[in-house]
Amino acid sequence: MFRYALPLALPVGLAFLLSACGHEEAPKVTVRPAMMVQPEPSAQAMDSYPGEVRARYEPELGFRIGGKVIRRLVEEGQRVKADQPLAELDPQDVRLQLEATRAQVAAAEANLNLVRAERDRYKTLMDRQMVSRSAYDNAENLFRSGEARLKQIRAEFNVSTNQASYAVLRAPQDGVVAKRAVEVGQVVAAGQTVFTLATDGEREVLISLPEQSVGRFKVGQPVSVELWTQPDQRFAGRIRELSPAADPKSRTFAARIAFTAGKVPAELGQSARVFIQAAEVVSLSVPLSAVTAENGATYVWILGANNTLKKAPVRVGAFGEKSVPVLEGLTASDWVVAAGVHVLHDGQQVRPVDRSNRVINLADKE
Questions:
Q1: pTM of the model as a whole
Q2: Cα–Cα distances in Å, from 313 out to 198, 291, 297?
Q3: For 321-330, what is each residue's pLDDT tens digit?
C-alpha cells in the first residue's frame, strides 16, 4: 500500500513548497549611511601658524593718580561687569588735599564778601563825592580779583573731588581680567598698568609671523582658522592687523586674525592654528581613506542627484600622512565619501552624513 502512496505524496509536497515560496516578500533594499567630506585646500599649499584666541579690545587699566594699593578686589581670569571696582588706593592723601581745597574755598568766599562790601561802601562815598574815583576803582579791582580767586579755588576743589574718586579703579565695560600686574602694598604711578581687561564681544587670534616671509602678508588677506577644540572644522578669517616692527626678542611680527564667518565658538585663551595660502594656485586634498584605485586608475566616490554615488576619476599628487592632494577631477563644492569606498558601486543610493552625523542635503548646499 505504501509503495503506491509514496509516488502520489511527492508531487503534492513539491506543489505545496512551490506555492509557499511564491508568497514570500521581496527583501527590502537598505540605504546605508555614508560619511561625506568636502575637499579642503591641500596642506602643501598652506602655511600654518600656531596662535591664541584673544579679545578684540584689551585695554590696559591704571589709576589716574599715584598712590599705595590697599585693596585688590578681583583675581586674574575673573569676569567683571562695567563700573565694578577692581582695586583701591590709600585715600588719605587725596582726602587731606580735598579738605585743604575746601578750606581755601571758604577763605576765598569770605574774602569775596569783604571786598564786595568794601566796593559797595566806596561806591556810596563816591556818589557823595567823599572819595576819589581812583579809590573806588581800586576797590572794584579788589572785588574782581576776589571773584577770580574764588572761581579758581572752586575749580581746584572740583579737581580734588575727582581725584578722590580716582582712588578706586573701575572696569570700563564687561569683560574678563586677562592679566594682573600689581599686589596689595605696591606703590603705583599715575597711568601704570594694573590690570589688562579682555572685553566682551569680538574674538581674534594672535599669531607671530617669521621675519623672512613677512613681506608676502598684508592686511585684509584671507585666511582660515582651526580651533584646537574643533580640529575638523575651519573658520574663515582675515588679517586685520599686522605689526610694523618685529619683536626685539623673537624677531617675529605680531598679526591679529579677525573671524569673518559670523559667530565662532572661540573662547579666550584657546589654542588655534591659522592657515595662510602659500601659492597662487591651491590644490584640493581629501582623506587617504576616500581614494581607491582599479585597473591602474585612481578615483573617488562623489555624491550625485537623489543621493546616488558616482565614480569620479582623479589625478592625485604625493600621498601625505593623512590626506592626498587632488590635482584634477574635483571641485571644492563636491561631497566625497570618506570611508568604506571598497564596498560601493556606481549608482548606489546612500544616506549622506557629515562628520558630525548631520544629514547632507545637496539642495541646501547649492
A1: 0.54
A2: 51, 10, 7
A3: 788 888 888 8
